[in-house]
Amino acid sequence: MSRLGDLIKLERTRQGLSYKQVAKKCGVSDKYLMEVETGKRIIADDQARRILKVMGMQQQTEADFTLDDIAATVDLQSAVPQLSRAVEEKKLTKKEKREGDAKDEGVAGSIWLDALAGVLKHVPIVNAAMKEVGHRLLPITDGKIEGANPDKVYYLTAPDNDLRGFRVMKGDLLLVVPASAPVDGAIMVLDTPFGKILRKTVRMAGFQVMLQKFDASCESEIKNMNEIVVVGRCVRLEADL
Questions:
Q1: Domain total for the chain?
Q2: Which of 80, 100, 118 is the last residue of a domain?
Q3: Each residue of 146-201: pLDDT tens digit?
Q4: Is 231 in contact with 142 (CB distance < 8 Å)?
Q5: More exposed terminus of the chain, fewer Cβ within 10 Å: N or C?
């Protein structure tokens, strides 16, 4: 099944519409729509947007999740349970329905927001001074990203080539999860008076840790545990080719 086909199916199901009802609104055959939803036919992005717009789905939600973001990032099948719960929780009363279409649009948007908030997260990209310079979208699995609280996860832009020998180049993005102690053999984020730095750490006896960097050659220094401030562990590397 294609992601855009999934998205069309999810919105059609949310509204309780049949293939024929949607096909008639959009000027396509119900067979065509069925083939798109089942992945037997590839649909162009602009055509998918048109169908979703005709069905009343907003092009962008309150959380800045665009249709492209959703289709490219989320396993939409995993969103179905959250969406179903959100629909049940936010059903309009007969009185609210009489208040007009504008009210309905807002609720529809919030339903999508509630459903997607459980499966998609804007993860900030920060520099060594912890200034946000962008974001990436990551899926949430069982309420976590890489086993951590989604609100505590971020991408750190590698500030230099100190770890080039470990295949981390300046400008690469490292996904960071919270940590307060060095992990043996891991790349850790350390806090210093000059900003965040990256070091590979090796645990040693006697509450000591070896900090390694590897640019032109491998350099190491040994520190007592109480001399360093660990703030995170790098669990993923993303680099542009």
A1: 2
A2: 118
A3: 999 999 999 999 999 999 999 999 999 999 999 999 999 999 999 999 899 999 99
A4: no
A5: C
